[in-house]
Design goal:
The complex is a heterodimer. By secondary structure, chain A is mainly α. Chain A contains 7 helices and 4 strands; from the N terminus they run H-H-H-H-H-H-E-E-E-E-H. The chains are: A mainly alpha, B alpha+beta.
Chain lengths: 154, 161
């Protein structure tokens, strides 16, 4: 009996399955979780998204099953109708996070502000995993802080 | 062929212990025969992987809830019925016949790639469908004794082919 034969077929399949499909499933589920989070924040149902995309609810359900091989085209279409980014590259996320984090910290340190205008774009921040989380209220700063935003963004 | 089979442990997980049947004179258990057969089915590779993931998921997380198994007369089969397939995608046309003992114990038999809606008419699985039901009937008559994940007195359980 060879060494290869000592490992059962089940174990060999399990090994290859965990290597290939579990990574795929995890990434796909991360994307669909993100879409569900955005839908929830907007008060939309899966059916609403389907209507706006011109698709059936069953198709969207399949897209968000966590197992469908979503194309960049499909993700972009969803981003367009949702008006928010579902995924972004690490470098883009880093830039956005750094600017918004600096502004948010700057805002929190000062007590001399008046609420005049929304500053944080689209009312979002990023949690530790880099996932978008939605603030319950928009953050607003006074004119001095708006100037800070412009200088930081420049 | 008229040989005697005994129940042997196949995979033990946190919530479920999967057993299988090993017939005298056979090098492989019935479950091993199934996985050896489907392992390199190119067209079904992804589905085979998903079926294994289902077994692992049932074993470690979900438990062997009866609704996760397809009714196949006295026997049951994996993958789970269509409404449960969202998690691990479709496991198209594959059938692994089993005998459901409890939410913690399942006995796996053999199976194959089903090509007809009615398994009796499918040249690939009809024999396994018949065997699974024949062996399941014998197991029902045995009135199996079990405790948690452990099937008791497996040495005294004999299955006739």
């Amino acid at each position: 009996m060879t060494e290869q034969k000592k490992i059962s077929a089940f174990d060999r399949i399990e090994k290859r399955a965990s290597k290939h499909s579990e990574n795929f499933v995890k990434k796909s589920l991360d994307i669909s979780d993100e879409v569900y989070d955005i839908l929830k924040s907007k008060g939309w149902s899966q059916k609403d998204l389907a209507i706006k995309l011109g698709k059936t609810e069953a198709e969207i359900s399949k897209w968000l099953s966590g197992l469908h091989n979503l194309t960049i085209k499909s993700i972009t279409k969803m981003e367009e109708v949702l008006g928010e980014e579902i995924i972004m590259t690490k470098s883009v996320a880093k830039d956005v996070f750094e600017i918004e984090s600096a502004l948010f910290n700057s805002f929190r340190k000062t007590e001399s502000y008046t609420l005049v205008k929304p500053v944080l774009k689209d009312n979002v921040d990023f949690n530790k995993k880099g996932k978008v989380i939605h603030f319950p209220n928009k953050i607003v700063l006074n004119r001095d802080k708006q100037a800070d935003l412009k200088s930081l963004s420049a | 062929m008229n040989s005697t089979g005994t129940i042997v442990q196949f995979k033990r997980y946190r919530r479920v212990c999967f057993y299988t049947v090993k017939f005298e004179g056979s090098e492989l258990t019935e479950a091993d025969k199934f996985f050896e057969k489907v392992e390199n089915e190119e067209e079904y590779g992804e589905y085979v992987d998903n079926l294994v993931k289902w077994i692992k998921d049932i074993g470690n997380n979900r438990g062997a809830r009866y609704e996760l198994f397809r009714d196949e007369r006295i026997a049951v089969a994996l993958p789970p019925p269509r409404q449960h397939l969202r998690t691990h995608n479709f496991v198209k046309d594959l059938r692994l016949y089993c005998f459901w003992v409890s939410p913690n114990i399942v006995i796996l038999f053999n199976g194959g790639i089903k090509t007809k809606i009615n398994p009796v008419q499918c040249p690939n699985v009809s024999m396994h469908f018949h065997n699974a039901n024949n062996w399941s009937k014998q197991l029902v008559e045995h009135e199996l004794d079990y405790n948690g994940l452990d099937l008791m007195d497996t040495d005294n359980i004999e299955i006739y082919d």
